[in-house]
Amino acid sequence: MERIAQHGTIRLERRFAAPPARVFAAWADPAARARWDVPGRWTIAQQTHDFREGGREAKRFGPVDDPRFVADTLYLDIVPSRRIVFSYSMTSRGMPISVSLTTVELSAAGKATRLLLVEHITLLDGNDTLANREEGLASMLDKIDGIV
């Protein structure tokens, strides 16, 4: 296998008809997060929550019959209702597929919230693509709308 690293940036924006505090709560509250924190119709098989600066979380997820992905997250900076910065690595069946640094910014837009997510990602050894990751993140953010 060729050992390569591909670098990319994903930038996604969403507008939610709720104030920033409610959108932030969709990230901070474990029950709310479990409703949107996987792409498409995938499922979460296991998830730990430690949503605080310095907190670590682990999530095993994937298709219902094959939750083969594990994300290991470290929260680096949290400003309630304003900003979340975290890094995470992802594996599939124990094989590293990516490492990311993600910033989520929330700002009031009248009575609504503008969310900006920027993820700097390193894809490892051709085990994922930027297009797949962007599609997954977009589908996750779209689910937040039904929660807030």
Distance between the termini: 44 Å
Query: Structural class, please?
Result: alpha+beta
Question: What's the number of extended β-strand segments?
Answer: 7
What does the oligomeric state look like here? Answer: single chain
Strand content: over 45%
Per DSSP, the total helix count is 3
- The low-confidence parts are none
Strand order of the largest sheet: 1-7-6-5-4-3-2
* Helix share, percent: 10-25%
Order of helices and strands: EHHEEEEEEH
Radius of gyration: 15 Å
Average pLDDT rating: 95
Task: Tell me, briefly, the overall form.
Answer: globular
The biggest beta sheet is recorded as: 7 strands, antiparallel
Q: Can you walk me through this structure?
A:
A hairpin with a 2-residue loop joins strand 5 and strand 6. The protein has a seven-stranded antiparallel β-sheet, with helices on one face. The model has no long low-confidence stretch (mean pLDDT 95). It is an alpha+beta fold and 148 residues long. It is 20% helix and 49% strand. The protein is globular and about 50 Å long.
Produce a short descriptive summary:
The chain contains 3 helices and 7 strands; from the N terminus they run βααββββββα. The chain is of the alpha+beta class and 148 residues long. The longest helix is centred in the C-terminal third of the chain and has 15 residues, at 130-144.
Index terms:
single chain, 148 residues, alpha+beta, 7 strands, 20% helix, 49% strand, globular
Secondary structure: elements and pairs:
Blueprint: E1 5-16, H1 20-28, H2 30-34, E2 43-47, E3 56-62, E4 69-79, E5 83-92, E6 95-109, E7 112-124, H3 130-144
